[in-house]
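Morning. Coffee machine broken again, so started the prediction first thing and wrote up yesterday's gels while waiting. Chain of 485 residues, entered below exactly as on the submission form.
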Amino acid sequence: MTRKVCILALFAVTWAFYSWTARSNGKPFVFENSSEDNYNLLVDGFLQGHLYLPIAPNPKLLQTADPLNPEQNAPYRLHDISLYRGKFYFYFGAAPAVTLMLPFRLLTHTHMPENLAVAVFLFGGLVASYWSFQFIVRRFVPQTPEYFSIIAIVLFGFCNFAPYILRRPSFYELAIASGYFYFFAAAWLLLTGLFGERTSLWRLAAAGFCLGLVLASRPNYVFVIGGILCAVGAAQLRTGNARTRLKPMMAVCLPFVCVLSLLLTYNFLRFDHVFEFGQRFQLENHRMGKTFSTAYFVHNFKAYMFSAARIDRHFPFYHLISQRAQIYSDGYGEPVGGVLATAPIAGLVFILIPIWAHMFKGGLQLDRSRPVVFLATSFGLAGLLMVLFLSFNGGLTQRYLLDFLPSFLFSAILVWIILHQALQGRLPVRRAMNAVLIGLLIFQVTLNVGVSFTGYYDNLREENPAAYGRIRSWFSAIEPRSVQE
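Came back before lunch.
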């Protein structure tokens, strides 16, 4: 009973912090009959029976020699909106609009604010991650201490930069949060559908549907989802006869293919090509280069994996350092914190290499923990595939970490449990390991909370200076007087 109360309390605290962060920039959750939020405009277009935004471009924009030139379109453009054949289109994934904001509109006849939608998807991702973790523990390592449930909520809720993303919860963050939620919803449905007491075709079908919605939120998950489908197929090849193998695969693949077909049709109807999502036609305030290039890889990979935060006595004490986004020609950049420097618990993923080496040599006996090794490896590879893919993308930004850091963290806590089980006969070593990892967890939580007060552009101080000043005053004993002045 005490454990359940603690878990519910932690979820309540997390939601309270998420919702406060999303609102505290002076933009409360307001439910209106009209809204200029881009996703709400997309819903407006859907309800009017078309796929373009219900805003007519300025005729002067269409008359310019090159409407996509940022110098020529500056007075007339809608920022980060695609212009194609005289219409404005929204190139970000439509899944949040179709699965959350449109149903909300139909049920309430009001517009769901984008900042609330971001908070809902991020909190939903936390819940789906936790359920997936709990299922793995109960199914494969039931002897795991109960305090790992508390660790999981803190790790998944406050160590993946969701608080940072909520500081500026706009349409950029909404697409990413949606992909994060549907990815872990699919993970939970696949785990429970395949490894429950009996195979559940309904859960597998729902998993396939969610995998499709991941792509409809964030198309850059394509290689990860391809890997997931291959892994499910490989797992089925080792079970039963051909008939029993075919049903689960069909249950996953048919809904996925249906959603994928709708997505490709959506692209074709907007941009006359099934694989065109609209980035080529986006209106920007920077002149853009190639979206993907091998020349971007080294710089981006170093930033995503190794860029450290500056730590000082200036509130909020943790400061992400700006990194240049190479897609832009003018040197524009945003703050980025690398995984290993700002989320060091994720480094546990690399311990899977010696674990596999010892398993092949027969020097490590994990008994029932062996499936956890496979699952930890799967999530770790998902995170690695994503960070490798994004490193070829010229856009470098902290919000992209939500595409791969949660997978690394999920893998890391499974590795933590594997080591905890393997060290059961060496209690001093296990206690020392737990103490170090708890220390790293505290570091990650304080860093995430700290940078959530600044966001990309010191948003809280700029948009709600009263709240910023009040919170900063709580730490006046830490800041030097010269800094306070």
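The radius of gyration is 23 Å. Going to sketch it on the whiteboard this afternoon.
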